[in-house]
Amino acid sequence: MNFSQPTIDERELAAISKALRLGHLSGDGEFSQKCHELLNELLGTKSALLTHSCTGALEMAAILIGIKKGDEVIMPSFTFSSTANAVILRGGTPVFVDIRPDTLNIDENLIEGALSENTKMLMPVHYAGVSCEMDTILEIGNKNNIPIVEDAAQSFLSEYKGKPLGSIGQMAALSFHESKNVVSGEGGALLINDKRLIKRAEIIREKGTNRGQFFRGEIDKYTWIDIGSSYLPSEITAAFLYTQLKKSKDIVKKRMRVWELYHNAFTDLEDNGHLRRPIIPQGCIHNAHIYYLLLPTEKKRNSILNKLNSSGIPAVFHYVPLHSAPAGIKYCRTTGTLNNTTELAARLIRLPLYAHMNDEDVEKVIEEVRNSIREEI
């Protein structure tokens, strides 16, 4: 049994073979353009640009917002290092806010208390494909003229009140890392919903040049006109991703089936206070990216995690909160106590989940979780 496994068949191989025959391998060829168009169609975004990673997309967003030394960006500590690094690399300071106990997303009611005259951006992270409370976050951003960049790494095809995640803030970043629902090995995308940012985003993505305009015949030569880096994925990556995007809804449907089997199986354990299942707020549609359990204490989490792994179940913990990491202490600052972040991170177990996970494996995970908890009672 694997913890995570991509959904791959002959279509990916056929697409890669076609990309090789077309002979354009360096990026922004036929498959890249198809991916851009399909992402915009699926998500309702103004512009989608493939990147070599979600990390790259977040870095591009920080450049486009103009993060510089002395600027502050509000985000949760319960996230991956890329969220913070994108800010730090521009000279800015991540400011960590505590998370909600229900969704493990940033607590929107604590954001205003973390604002300062240096706040330049809000970066909500949609944990486990479940949306943050975006109405409140948008209201705060609009009232204070602060742009919002969604870290939507885990939330492709999730929704908030009928709106696809990634289409709500000024920009958003997606991940297609092999651990995600839809994959390309490494890979990501920058989603842009503010038309004013599209032209410059294209330039930053192409090493600071107006190469894209040149290839469209809009100028007779291209040159270096802005800062930037090499954020494009290859056409081989794009070809692989295009087949994944085309079957993405089916992948999510199959993952949801596994998610629901877990969720239904642990109802009684939650009712009896032995664990807590994920909570999906009204108005949120998630993409079954993660199924996690919260145990009553860190000690019980560690004990059950060890028992599951000993029985062949590759269950794992998740983030070590950034505010407690060496780099977080060095480069970032916190507001409030972050008690929820610290406590919940210490109590969380992620269970194996992938689209083609068979019933036998799902039942084995459920049985071993129940056995492990029974031994703890």
Name the helix and strand elements from N-terminus to C-terminus, one letter apiece: HHEHEHEHEHEEEEEHHHHHEEHHEHEH
Average pLDDT number:
97
* CA distance, first residue to last residue: 27 Å
Largest sheet: 4 strands, mixed
Strand content: 5-15%
Integer count of domains: 2
Radius of gyration: 21 Å
* Shape, principal axes of CA atoms: globular
Number of contiguous helices: 15
Quaternary structure classification? single chain
Structural class: alpha/beta
Low-confidence stretches: none
Task: Please tell me about this protein's structure.
The chain is of the alpha/beta class. It folds into 2 domains: 238 residues, 3-Layer(aba) Sandwich (Aspartate Aminotransferase, domain 2); 128 residues, Aspartate Aminotransferase, domain 1, CATH 3.90.1150.10. The protein is 41% helix and 12% strand. The protein has 15 helices and 13 strands. Strands 1-9-8-5 form a 4-stranded mixed beta sheet. Strands 4-2-3-12 form a 4-stranded parallel beta sheet. Strands 7-6-10 form a 3-stranded antiparallel beta sheet, with no helix packed on it. A hairpin with a 2-residue loop joins strand 6 and strand 7. Helix 1 packs antiparallel against helix 9 and helix 3 runs parallel beside helix 4. The longest helix is centred in the last third of the chain and has 18 residues. The radius of gyration is 21 Å and the shape is globular. The two termini are 27 Å apart. 49% of the residues are buried. The mean pLDDT is 97.
